[in-house]
Amino acid sequence: MKSKLFRKALGCRPVLLAGALAMLLLTPLVASAELMRLAVVGVTNQTDEAEFGKLLIAQGIANLVAQELYDTGRYVPVEDSPEITSRVEELLARAAAVPGDDVAEVPQGELGADAVARVKIKKFSKSRMRGFMGPFTTAKVDIEIEVEVSVQELDQVPVVGMGVGTGATKSRGVLFQVREDKVHFDQTSVGMATQEAVRQAVAGLMKQIGEGT
């Protein structure tokens, strides 16, 4: 009798293992199904620095913000279709072309998005500092950038986060390093300050979203 019960228990074990394995495989699928499809629809420059109004720089900042938001585990990119990609590029170009202008409201359904993000470059300041090394005069510029990132999920009120990045650069240094139509933010002080400001802004708004859920 004991041997029969033992064999019966062994026979059930593969079924239990298969069930457990199925649950493990399904869990990521269920989790990913709950993620919100997000699009960054505008980067507006509210400073006097024209560099932030260039479309390539705006697109680079939009990508920075999108990646930070994806890394939170709450969002995924919108559907990768030519129509939606073209529409998002059109919205970014429109926002970059008019300094200080707010991005027009975009129906989320139009982009197949559950959430849209908008970025504003609120402040960019430079202060020159002079130093002396023997007979030579050196100059550097302390910079500060303030960024606002907002996310609106479905029909909810937008949640806003602010971030500040600082750094120092040469008086004649370039603001951003661009190669092959791509902005390399980690190659300049201003680029790294922009990254830090975006990181802080996203962290701030995600904290608010977490508190509200």
Please tell me about this protein's structure:
The protein has a 5-stranded mixed sheet with strand order 2-1-3-4-5. The chain has 5 helices and 7 strands, in the order αβαβααβββββα. It has helices spanning 2-33, 55-71, 82-97, 108-111, 189-212, and strands spanning 36-45, 75-77, 115-133, 136-153, 159-170, 177-179, 182-184. By secondary structure, the protein is α/β, with parallel strands linked by helices.
Summarize the structure.
With 213 residues, the chain is an alpha/beta fold. The chain is built from 5 helices and 7 strands; from the N terminus they run αβαβααβββββα.
Distance between the termini: 55 Å
Shape: globular
Say how many strands there are.
7
Contiguous helical run count:
5
- Rg estimate, integer Å: 24 Å
- Class by helix and strand content? alpha/beta
Widest sheet: strand ordering: 2-1-3-4-5
Helix content, binned percent: 40-55%
Strand content: 25-35%
Element order: H for helix, E for strand: HEHEHHEEEEEH
The main pleated sheet reads as: 5 strands, mixed
Task: Indicate the topology.
Blueprint: H1 2-33, E1 36-45, H2 55-71, E2 75-77, H3 82-97, H4 108-111, E3 115-133, E4 136-153, E5 159-170, E6 177-179, E7 182-184, H5 189-212
Parallel strand pairs: 1-2, 1-3
Antiparallel strand pairs: 3-4, 4-5, 6-7
Helix pairs in contact: 2-3, 2-5
